[in-house]
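Quick question, first post here. What does this chain look like in 3D?
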Amino acid sequence: MKSCFSAFFFLLITTSIYSQKFEYAALLIPDSLKQNANAVVRLDQTDITIASQRDMTVATKRIVTVLNEKGMRAIGAIESYDKKTSIRSIEATVYDGFGNEIKKIRRKDFRDESATDDSTLFSDDRVIYLHYTPISYPFTVVYECEVSTSNTAFIPQWFALELYSVSVEKAMLNVSFAENLGFKKKESNLARFAVQKTVDTAKQLSYTAANIMAQKDEYGSPDPYNYFPKVMMALEHFNLEGVDGNAKDWKEFGRWYFDQILVGTSELSDETKTKILALVGNETDPIQKAKIIYNYVQQKSRYVGIQVGIGGWKPMPAKDVDRLGYGDCKALTNYTKALLGVVGVASYNTLLYGDSYKRDIESDFVSTQGNHMMLSLPDGDHYIFLECTSQDDPFGYQANFTDDRNVLIIKPEGGVIVRTKNYQNNDNAQQGKGNFTIAENGDFSGTIAIISEGAQYSKFKLESKLPNEKEAYYKKYWYNISNLKLEKVSFSNDKEKVKFTENMSLSATGYGAVSGNRMMVVANAFNQYAVDIKRIRNRKTPFEIGRGSYDSDEITIALPAGFALESIPKDFALSNKFGEYKTELVKKDESNLVYKRSLLIKKGIYTSDQYEEYRLFLEQVSRNDNAKIILIKT
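> Answer (accepted):
Ran it through. Tokens below.
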């Protein structure tokens, strides 16, 4: 009996030791790394081996302790693959907060799906990822993967830190490469986070980082891509989907792209050429020709994602887009370019990062960059940029997606970096002109016309909204008017001048607050500043106002019969580095007032110690926007 018990006890102990990894226990994480953290990256190791121009292997080991639900996105157990990229191995093991093994996840247990959305008709691109529902927090995931590819045009960028509210215990990058490939790198923000370069030779490169505390995502914090430490890598001699490339500068890269990737994609049928020539007719001005053809493409085609083989970068043939009536950004851009060529208008495919965040093609680092394509049209000494995926954008409109960033224009003679249109603060304008009447019981009725331009013009999307969606939008926009009822809503969209006008009639009960023989009425009914700017003590990050704006309003206010003015808000003006604000209330006659307001917000990047001044500026704007007229019953 004693012998049997001893054997059982030994088996129990050894089994426990085997299934437990003490080093993964959440209790071992230093308190400093838990502060402000939703997850802690215990280890993030990336090993990249580039054996030749057509042979690269990327091995990843990532150990992440997830502290709460918000930390789930830090796991990072996801890979994409296609015919040129294969997943050699992939697995994950989950441990509880004490380091006890909960589950081992093999490849067959990962989710494997198309990498594109529902608008994609067909695709070879797939994504494999871990889908795990935790039983409790904290828990730890150990993820390991090895990927091989012939696409050496895309060497993964390395981020020692990727997300806000995530800390890093240890991160490592090891790269080995053949000496004759022209390997190069660009480092950003390493010193800010004490990232160390440990090896830098003709064949190897290594970095390590340790104990990076979680960064708080404060209001207006910079895009992590531009603020956190990263290393970009590329080859002068690379391969993209079976096509070898060589580029030491952007001119060479653009020439290669034009000759090897765009080649043979612009052919059109004689029937289509005849149709386009007839459509343009006797028009001789190149820009007017382009407007006619851009409108034709918008009416004829629709956007879908198409990525088969080199389809990730090579456009679908123009004649296929013409026949089918759809295409992705590359296909529709190339199709528009082909149509313009029929009528003798020069235009160029242009690579860029399309996003509301302004992200540049890194002009000082020649590599395969960008996630989007649009068309550039020479116009004197500058360019007009056309968004060919949109069926409703005005000709040349760029705000909020492709504005104010470096892009790569692909010309037959080579690539050129240029900057897209920069909408200035005053360009992003909204002008309101209207009136409202207050009844004796405080009820409200009014009309207003709002004209929007620049970045604010993007409201033209309201035209296509359903009635209930429009109502929800305006009730949120006029949050300050309780019991709001939209009596009439109509729009006017001037695409030639790029101006969008909203014409509205509205009413509400109880807008004027009646107390005894007095009534209080907020003078600014139509355009109150609504952003809640929180106080942040000891702010760490700088903050950015990505796009400036300018609002101006002139509203006539009809006072209720049987009431007289007791007091009105004083004129107010405020000006500093962040903007300018001004209000005035003019007595037109005994029964009518005119309220005028203007607010200029200046775009810019500001230091952390300027944040409180900015917050106070907006707080003063918000407080003064709520200034009240006081009426007394006569």
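The radius of gyration is 30 Å.
The chain has three domains: 18-240, 247-419, 426-633.
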